[in-house]
Amino acid sequence: VQLQASGGGLVQAGGSLRLSCAASGRIVSRYRMAWFRQAPGKEREFVAGINSSGPINYADSVKGRFTISRDNTKNTVYLQMNSLKPEDTAVYYCARGRSSVGGPYDSWGQGTLVTVSS
User: Which residues of 33-65 are buried (b: 16+ CB within 10 A; e: fewer)?
Assistant: First the structure.
């Protein structure tokens, strides 16, 4: 399984970005997919996840601002990030869960850097 994350960049506070995670093979529709992030000097943290059947959950810090979605026909998962804050600055990773509803996460993308300036 290969996951290719893209879409990161530099944006001002209050701005938006959309991250994409392209998967090899038809895994997006069959497994739980999730986004994580790791800020400098901090541990990796969960951001958002979507089960194969649809249920979605978010970290409290991004609720109401971020939206996870997927396109099964393109084998791609997205993370729409709005109202970005400087504390959202991190390397964002997509990951595949080992089942349709959860982890552990056994496949990871290479990460894409999001920098939010104040």
Answer: bbbbbeeeeeeeebbbbbbbeeeeebeeebeee
From first to last of its 118 residues, the chain has per-residue pLDDT tens of 899 999 999 999 999 999 999 999 888 889 999 999 999 999 999 999 999 888 999 999 999 999 999 999 999 999 999 999 999 999 999 999 988 888 799 999 999 999 999 9
What single letter denotes the amino acid at residue 1?
A: V
Residue with tokens 């506070």: 13
Write out the two tokens for 102.
């959860």
